[in-house]
Amino acid sequence: MAAMQVAESLPGGQARDVPREPPPEQGSGFRCLSARLCALRPDDSSSARTEIHLLFDQLISENYGEVAPDVSALLVQACRLVPLNQNHLVSKVSQLIHHLLNRLQVIVDEQNLDFLLAYTISAIQQCSSWTHMEILQALAALVYCNGSKCQKYLPDLLGKNGILMKLSDSAQPDPEARRAAVHCMANLCLSVPGQPYLEEPYPNICFQAFLTTLQSPKSSDMDDITFCMLLQNALKGIQSLLNGGKMKLTQTEELGALLAVLKKSMFHGLPGLNIELPTVLYPTPLPQYDGRPPVKPQQSESNTSRPTKKSKVKSRKIHQEEEEEESSGEREAVPITGSGKENLCEGSTPCSSSLGVRSLPVEGSSMAGRDRVSTPFRSASWKKVSSSESDYSDAEGGMQSKMRSYQAKVRQGALACFLSTIKSIEKKVLYGYWSAFVPDTPELGSPQSVSLMTLTLKDPSPKTRACALQVLSAILEGSKQFLSVAEDTSDHRRAFTPFSVMIASSIRELHRCLLLALVAESSSQTLTQIIKCLANLVSNSPYNRLKLSLLTKVWNQIKPYIRHKDVNVRVSSLTLLGAIVSTHAPLPEVQLLLQQPCSSGLSNSNSATPHLSAPDWWKKAPSGPFLEEASVSSPKGSSEPCWLIRLCISTVVLPKEESCSSSDAGCATGSIYEPSPMRLEALQSDRQILCITMLLGLNDSKNRLVKAATSRALGVYVLFPCLRQDVIFVADTANAILMSLQDKSLNVRAKAAWSLGNLTDTLIVNMETPDPSFQEEFSGLLLLKMLRSAIEASRDKDKVKSNAVRALGNLLHFLQPSHIEKPRFAEIIEESIQALISTVLNEAAMKVRWNACYAVGNVFKNPALPLGTAPWTSQAYNALTSVVTSCKNFKVRIRSATALSIPSKREQYGSAEQYVQIWNALVTALQKSEDTTDFLEFKYCASLRTQICQALIHLLSLASASDLPCIRETLESNGDMVQSFILQFLKSGAEGDDTGAPHSLHERDQMVRTALEHISSIQALAGDSAKRAIMDFLEDTLTIYFDSSGSQVALLGLTDR
Predict the structure, then answer these.
(1) Nearest to residue 671, comparing CAs of 640, 646, 641, 639?
(2) pLDDT for 819-845, tens place per residue?
(3) C-alpha angle 797/802/805, rounded to 5°?
(4) How many CB atoms sit inside 10 A of residue 387's CB?
(5) How far is residue 1006's CA from residue 919's CA, in Å, rounded to a whole number?
(6) Alpha carbon separation from 412 to 103, 475, 645, 679 (Å, rounded)
(7) How far out from the chain centre does Cα 800 lie?
(8) Three-state secondary structure call for residue 311
(9) Closest by Cα among 533, 558, 396 to 467
(10) CB atoms closer than 10 angstroms to residue 506
(11) Which domain of life is it from (predicted)?
(12) How far apart are CA 345 and CA 416, in angstroms?
């Protein structure tokens, strides 16, 4: 009956009145089988059921070599033939749905999907429990990437008494059905770009179900592999929710609970490790972000602020042979438990005695645990262990290998989910959990807590190690502000450890562990991730505040890898070297490293020596005059140029060998051209010309990595004092950048836009020099091209747009009267300003809007532009006042208030109506300066009020007689509020954000005095009392301020006036 109801829901659902005999064309092909199935009609006879059974079996076993017909219509017909009271047939048709959809990867149209969903849901509700597993598999295949099309069925699936909620509950007696139900939920949450997302509250319902699943222990009736698959499905579900962008982890408890289960799952099944964690991890307060002094360790390590971490080794009740195999997969040679002392020698070659990896006996060596391909240390016992599920020596060994494979997939799923979590929360929030995932140097005699480095050093799966390194890289990326407090330059012998020393200790331990992983790794893919992770660490660490030798160790360890056989390893090695030479210049340690001869650190011959590529072509200087002399960084009296410069130049200019690639050239470009002005100026003029010529030539490269690196390097060079006033170089660079802005690659365009922003910054710097020759010689035609390209780029993706609008603002600021007078500039100026206005108003990324407001402020700085009289004046002011009163991001509000205070003449503010509109908007913005639901914005409240007060005082200092009545009216209604904030401004000034507001007390009160003097000098209209009211307001404000500050002299001066 239920089956017939479902069938009736489909148009044309009446049974076809056709004979049941097979068509004349017999065959085993999929098309023939489909035709036979479609020719059948519902029949409850035994022979009909047998025929349907056989057809389903044949369809499932078919190899699908032919082009498939309409699969979704075929599945609908199959369901119409199977009433819900036939459990075996329902099970079989569910297998068919699951098999065909997974095998053929077809998209089911909405009409047929609606029918099939109704059928499977009814089947679960009415059929015996033993069929639920197959039906849920069919349902999972149907809802895969179709969550937005299943909205009307969500109450039946995910409601309070929904099918999936019941079957996924930990009390569910059938473990396989429970796993399949969680799998269905995960597929429902998988979003497709461009399609609607699950409606609230279902994303949160699914999240809580996944979280509960991950928190629940394995039940006694569930086997280990099913449990692993259950965990994998729950992790995939959370990852899909996070990747969809609709899941906001704003609650500390919610985020802490997720991080706790992710950390637990990261180590699931790791040999020799069994950790116990609290259900919630709590963050540590961070002085870098909340403005408070560093906390003492007694506070940061308390139960409420720092996660509890325990590591307990627990022996497994398995055969002795398996125990030996597992121990060989662990990194026992890598001392993750110990005193935390440095394990690397000071020289370029690591000590074999300190690195236990190299001094262990062959049998049971940890080096063997990494499945080395060509190492002599491959352990005989480890040969029995394989991560492949198809390589089983016997039944027992096969199950153990299969188990290890599934456990590794859980760890990989947890790391992938953690990576999505990192991308969905703010870095300042993430770093509160730093100590839970990043290692710290353990105290003497105490074991080291488990962290991401535990996986990097001990996990037997290369893929898992690479995943852990990707997560660590994501944590380190953008961590410069967090790590900036680290300090380790002096010995701290106190009763407590300062927060700065704790962070320094963590940085030091990261260096130690990553270098250990570097020398022990055999997988090229994982090796690349280690080096990328080191590059991120080097780029963000404050080495000027740390003890020497950290960079030296990294430098000496990485040098052999620039000759590695794998191109990705070579590329990442060059990236790391580029990061080292770019650290906080000038760093004496780096200067000494650059003076080392090219052979230093390249003679390692122990087991950790990487596979080297053929000829050392870069060791010998290529022919040509440009390398015949000593270059910068060479030791005094030596004729050997800096080996790194020679390496990079050779990589770029020599004919490409089999072992080299375009990626090498791109990275070499990024390394050698990650320069500092001092290094470039120290080069002789012919070498400067060589570097510049090579860069401009490489900008035409067909390889996008090379082109992106070249665009960025040009953007760095154009800022150098020795080059920025060279009109020809700036013009050549501009043309090269404009060409890259047209590239198909978003990465190239983003780098080019950043460089265009830098180049236009250079134009502004050159305006401020006494010599006007640069402005006179710079081509007006090139300016037009730059404006057109910047307008076009302002319509691109946010990565390009943010710098494009910055460039537009600079270009409009740079325009000279001679340009503006020309008719061909009039249209492009109007179009440029309209592009900026639309960007200010659009709901783009906040960085883009901030840059747009900054750019509009730059436009206001050009006295040659007709600000105040041009038609676009009111549009620009309206856009800024809209942002300053309503934008949810306070930094954008601050920047718009700054722009509103830039015009230096009253006529630039336009009519009296326009002036009053700006004044009233600023007063409204001052009233709403604390109205935010985002607690992260509260820290900018004071800065916003400071900038608004400065803008209001600035407007008063320019007011005309016609403006005074409206100002008085505002002060009558909001005078107390405005006065209280101006008094705060006078007493404290700017806090937190660099808004350009004056910081000295004298400058601040002088602004109010200037405004008062200006108002008093206005010739008011007869009978107008507004002037007196405004003067009283300002005098009263100054009197209160001077009285509270005890400045009697100033108070007397004010009274006398």
Answers:
(1) 646
(2) 998 888 999 999 999 999 999 998 778
(3) 110
(4) 17
(5) 21
(6) 25, 17, 39, 44
(7) 16
(8) strand
(9) 533
(10) 19
(11) Eukaryota
(12) 35
Specify the DSSP class assigned to residue 1018: S
Rounded to 5°, the CA angle 419-420-423 comes to 90
- 312 φ/ψ angles, rounded to the nearest 5 degrees: -130, 125
C-alpha distance across the termini of the chain, in Å? 98
CA distance 120 to 102: 16
What is d(CA 297, CA 498) in angstroms, rounded to the nearest whole number?
A: 7
The two three-digit tokens of residue 675, written as one number: 């320069």
Tell me the three-class secondary structure of 564-621, residue by residue: ECCHHHHHHHHHHHHHHHCCCCCCHHHHHHHCCCCCCCCCCCCCCCCCECCCCCCCCC
Output the CA torsion 515→517→523→528 (10° steps).
-40
β-bridge mates for residue 312, sequence order: 274
Distance, CA of 421 to CA of 416 (rounded, Å): 9
For residue 700, what are its two tokens?
A: 């035409």
Unique residue bearing structure tokens 């180049």: 759
* Cis status of the peptide bond prior to 201, with omega within 30 of 0: yes
Q: Which residue has the tokens 């991890």?
A: 281
Instruction: List the structure tokens of 616.
Output: 């050392």
Structure tokens belonging to residue 817: 């009267």
User: pLDDT-based confidence at 228, cuts 50/70/90?
Assistant: very high
pLDDT at 855: 96
Amino acid at 372: R
| pTM of the shown model | 0.65
φ, ψ for residue 325, nearest 5 deg:
-65, -40
72-84 in b/e burial notation, b at 16+ Cβ within 10 A?
A: bbbbbbbbbbbbb
Tokens linked to 944: 């916003």
Length of the chain: 1057
- Residue 972 has a CB neighbour count (10 Å cut-off) of 11
